[in-house]
């Protein structure tokens, strides 16, 4: 366990360590056990973040041909499907110079372009590969300075996460083109609890895969509501990307990747914020939903009473009822056009957008003028 914490929103949250750190630690320990033919109880490694980890080892096994052990993943207080899973490393000497990586059970294989690892390779990301390689090189160097006998030219490293086949179903991996298990991840070696950076990286990665496949027209939804509604419209879910609350970040990345058209489908409660120029839609950042809804009602001729009732509404569904009862002309199509204008301005007009607004209670509320045409192009056939 890593006994370091950070305070967020008044709560003390504990850091964890990545599957990459687990794999590097297990590999270093397995190599030492192979070289010395002795069992180890713990192992110490350095992380790219600069922190040292002293990790407990499990399942130690070694002989004259190979060695292996495992480290239990600790995600700290970050919600992480791999928390508590064992990460195994088996190291085998070889006459081929360097380090060869092999995907054991529960570690995926890359089958799609657009990722940081080539197609056909084990889904062990670049930083964990560097960590593992560095630990092997340093361990071998220290062993050689001790005047020991000549060592093998290279090493085969097989990383396994036995629970990974099932756990991968709860990750982005199947959609990203990583088959057979989990990815071995981590850029700092450390898991920061509730890390915004990590979430943004995973969202961007999914978009980069579609970009690498040559898709130029995609679908953005803030979350699962948008995904479910898109499915009800018979849209192609392979082209769908969740933005979470980071609408501005994802728009910026979409522009950088040169996407041409985006169909933005969202629950009114999220996209009404975008209509007000709010591009991080988390409630802790800003919540002007009723103010924005009321302002546009006023623009379309709502009475002072209707505006006051909208302002007093506790939910957007309640506000929708008020707006519908007021029979404001084309209100939600108007609001969709406002959202379209805001997101188009965010990317300096470099992407064409269409917008669809819905609510859980009322279903489809409104859409921008050419949304129907783009919807048809992005449907499954």
TrEMBL record:
Provide the reaction this enzyme catalyses.
Co-precorrin-5B + S-adenosyl-L-methionine = Co-precorrin-6A + S-adenosyl-L-homocysteine
Q: What is its EC number?
A: 2.1.1.195
UniProt keyword terms in alphabetical order: Cobalamin biosynthesis, Methyltransferase, S-adenosyl-L-methionine, Transferase
Stored Pfam families: CbiD (PF01888)
Q: What class of enzyme is it?
A: transferase
Q: Does the keyword Acyltransferase apply?
A: no
- Pathways per UniProt: Cofactor biosynthesis; adenosylcobalamin biosynthesis; cob(II)yrinate a,c-diamide from sirohydrochlorin (anaerobic route): step 6/10
Question: InterPro entries from the xrefs?
Answer: CbiD (IPR002748), CbiD_sf (IPR036074)
SUPFAM superfamilies, sorted: CbiD-like
Is Transferase given among the entry's keywords? yes
Similarity comment: family membership: Belongs to the CbiD family.
| The protein's name in its UniProt record | Cobalt-precorrin-5B C(1)-methyltransferase
Q: Which organism is it from?
A: Acetobacterium fimetarium
């Amino acid at each position: 366990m890593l006994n370091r914490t950070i305070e967020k929103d008044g709560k003390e949250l504990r850091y964890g360590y990545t599957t990459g750190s687990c794999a590097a630690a297990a590999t270093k320990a397995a190599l030492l056990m192979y070289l010395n033919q002795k069992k180890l109880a713990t192992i110490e490694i350095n992380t790219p973040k600069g922190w040292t980890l002293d990790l407990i080892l499990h399942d130690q096994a070694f002989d004259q041909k190979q060695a292996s052990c495992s480290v239990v993943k600790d995600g700290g207080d970050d919600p992480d499907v791999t928390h508590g899973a064992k990460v195994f490393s088996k190291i085998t000497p070889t006459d081929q110079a360097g380090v060869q990586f092999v995907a054991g059970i529960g570690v995926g294989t890359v089958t799609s372009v657009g990722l940081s690892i080539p197609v056909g390779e084990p889904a062990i990301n670049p930083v964990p590969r560097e960590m593992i390689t560095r630990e092997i090189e340093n361990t071998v160097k220290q062993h050689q300075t001790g005047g020991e006998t000549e060592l093998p030219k290279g090493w085969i490293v097989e990383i396994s996460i036995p629970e990974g086949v099932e756990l991968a179903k709860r990750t982005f991996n199947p959609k990203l083109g990583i088959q057979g298990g989990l990815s071995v991840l981590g850029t700092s070696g450390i898991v920061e609890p509730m890390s915004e950076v990590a979430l943004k990286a995973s969202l961007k990665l999914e978009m980069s895969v579609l970009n690498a496949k040559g898709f130029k027209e995609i679908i953005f939804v803030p979350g699962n509501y948008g995904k479910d509604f898109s499915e009800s419209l018979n849209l192609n879910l392979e082209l769908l990307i969740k933005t979470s609350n980071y609408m501005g970040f994802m728009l910026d990345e979409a522009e950088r990747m040169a996407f041409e058209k985006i169909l933005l489908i969202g629950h009114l409660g999220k996209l009404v914020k975008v209509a007000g120029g709010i591009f991080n839609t988390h409630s802790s950042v800003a919540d002007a939903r009723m103010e924005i809804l009321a302002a546009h009602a006023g623009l379309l001729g709502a009475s002072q009473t209707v505006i006051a009732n909208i302002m007093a509404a506790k939910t957007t569904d309640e506000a929708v009822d008020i707006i519908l009862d007021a029979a404001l002309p084309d209100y939600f199509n108007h609001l969709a056009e406002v959202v379209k204008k805001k997101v188009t301005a965010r990317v300096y007009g470099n992407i064409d957008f269409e917008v669809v607004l819905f609510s859980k209670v009322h279903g489809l509320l409104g859409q921008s003028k050419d949304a129907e045409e783009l919807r048809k192009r992005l449907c499954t056939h």
